[in-house]
Amino acid sequence: MKLGFFYFKLLFLSTIRNIPALFFTLIFPPLMLLLFAHQWEGKNALGAVIIFFNYSVQTVALMLLGMGVTQEKNSDWAKYLRTLPVGIKPMIMGRIFHTIALSFINLVTLSFVALFILKLPLPIGNLFYFGFIALAGSIPMALLGMTIGYAANPESSRSIFTLLNLLLLFGSFALPSVGFFGILREFVPTYQWSQISFSHINSEINPTTPLLWLGGYSILFILLFKKVYSRSLKKT
After folding, report:
1. Is 199 helix (H, G, I), strand (E, B) or coil?
2. How far is CA 39 from CA 48, 86, 147, 168, in A?
3. Cα(175)–Cα(195) distance, rounded to whole angstroms?
4. Closest of 25, 27, 10 to residue 61, by C-alpha
5. Band of the pLDDT at 95, cuts 50, 70, 90?
């Protein structure tokens, strides 16, 4: 546990010294909410908050973390860490703690914008619930980001993560509910993630099914990450 927190401290200090990382963490999500909030005037404000809460966490857990892993994995510092008699668990714990901390900062800034700048009629209890589900979803997103980060090369990682981040965003709410796309969206992790939050405001949605999907994806991403990480160790 101590090694996990030590790794988290290293990552957090590195992030706050990185201006692009701070932009994605502190500025980009609330800026997006400010730019597109007018789309939900007089409509489903809670639905908008759910989408932006999850998307802000997804941007940190998947895109920011994944690109950081890709850039770091071949550095001299990373190669040195691999020579130490430390298993993979402290590194995973440190990265997940780091992701949750940055995601929490995102959620606080989004809540401030929604309540005090846009003055959306949002019950505080719902904000806490949506925030908790968003933070819980950061774990499978972080595992997916680390898996792709170790598998991708630095030259293509930015394009891969940017495209995947957008696809997962629109897959969470924009796919039709009928036909082929209605079947396809059931396999989209971010759709199941958003359904857990929507079940809180829509009694017709059963939260058990999306919870099982998200739990299954978490296990799958852990297995894939361990395989990809072990392969990267053999290359070095």
Report:
1. coil
2. 9, 50, 35, 20
3. 13
4. 25
5. confident
Give me the pLDDT at residue 53, please: 93
Chain centroid, CA 149 distance in Å: 14
**Continuous segment of H or E residues that includes residue 16:** helix 2-16
Mean pLDDT taken over the chain: 84
Helix, strand, coil shares, percent, the chain, to 5:
85, 0, 15
Tallying the residues shown for the chain, one arrives at: 236
* pLDDT class of 148 with cuts at 50, 70, 90: very high
- Listed in sequence order, the residues at least 6 apart from 78 whose beta carbon sits closer than 8 Å to its beta carbon are 72
Could you give the percent of the chain with pLDDT greater than 90?
33
Q: Three-state SS for 37?
A: helix
For residues 199-231, one letter each, b for 16 or more C-beta atoms within 10 angstroms of the residue's C-beta and e for the rest, the string is: bbeeeeeeeeebbebbeebbeebbebbeebbee
Give the tokens for residue 154: 């630095």
- Using DSSP's 3-state secondary structure scheme, residue 17 falls into coil
- Across 17-136, the runs of DSSP E, i.e. the strands, are none
Asked whether residue 216 carries a pLDDT value surpassing 80, the answer given is: yes
